[in-house]
Amino acid sequence: MGAVLLVVVLAVTAGAVVVAGLVKAGRRESGAEKARLAEQARLAARRSMDAIWKMDGREFEEFIAQLCRRDGCTDVKRVGGTGDLGADVTGILPDGRRLVVQCKRYAAHRSVGSGDIQKFNGTARLEHGADVPLFVASCVFTRQARAFAAKQQLTLIDVDLLGFWNSGTPLVSFLDLDIGRSGNHRKLGPAS
């Protein structure tokens, strides 16, 4: 009887070890698949930027205005041009807050520095009454620009986030991101 009990205990223990190993392997595979899908989504979003990089500044501003309208913003106007004091697009978010957008359609290899963010910060709320100042760029922001924007509570949408916005992610998803810790400041090559 003792030998049978020992065999049963060993079989149950071996079975538990095998099941635990399978569960662990399944979790690893699931994590790897999630990472692969996230990278695939990021690359697809980046590819969607090809048409955007071909736009001129005015077309880019109208494109951003269209994305705002798509996501439920009302009273959206493209107001950019000479003397715009940093407001290229204005509108009202679905929750009633005033949105003021500065748009920079730069080549992929460029970056937006803190000077541009500081200028926008100086006019977005005071001149335009922004509840939500939003700076959208077709490139990356420098680390200093992101740090300043985080301190001043400005929302930044860089090339990667713009690709996701263009691919259907709603604008409100980006408004509470911790931009001081997100993204990167590396310049992208033309084929990135």
Written description of the protein model:
With 192 residues, the protein is an alpha/beta fold. The chain is built from six helices and seven strands; from the N terminus they run αααββββαββαβα. The strands form two sheets. A five-stranded mixed sheet has the order 1-2-3-5-7, with helices on both faces. The protein has a two-stranded parallel ribbon with strand order 4-6. Helix 1 crosses helix 6. It starts with a helix and ends in a 26-residue tail after the last helix.
The helical percent reads 40-55%
- The radius of gyration computed from the alpha-carbon positions, rounded to a whole number of angstroms, is 24 Å
- Overall morphology: elongated
Question: N-to-C SSE series?
Answer: HHHEEEEHEEHEH
- What is the topology, as strand order, of the major beta sheet? 1-2-3-5-7
* Average residue pLDDT: 84
Itemize the secondary structure elements and their pairings.
Elements: H1 2-47, H2 50-53, H3 57-70, E1 74-78, E2 89-92, E3 98-104, E4 111-112, H4 114-124, E5 132-137, E6 140-141, H5 143-152, E7 155-157, H6 159-166
Characteristic key phrases:
192 residues, five-stranded mixed beta sheet, 6 helices, 48% helix, elongated, disordered C terminus
Could you give a quick summary of the protein structure above?
This protein is α/β, with parallel strands linked by helices and 192 residues long. The protein has helices at residues 2-47, 50-53, 57-70, 114-124, 143-152, 159-166; strands at 74-78, 89-92, 98-104, 111-112, 132-137, 140-141, 155-157.
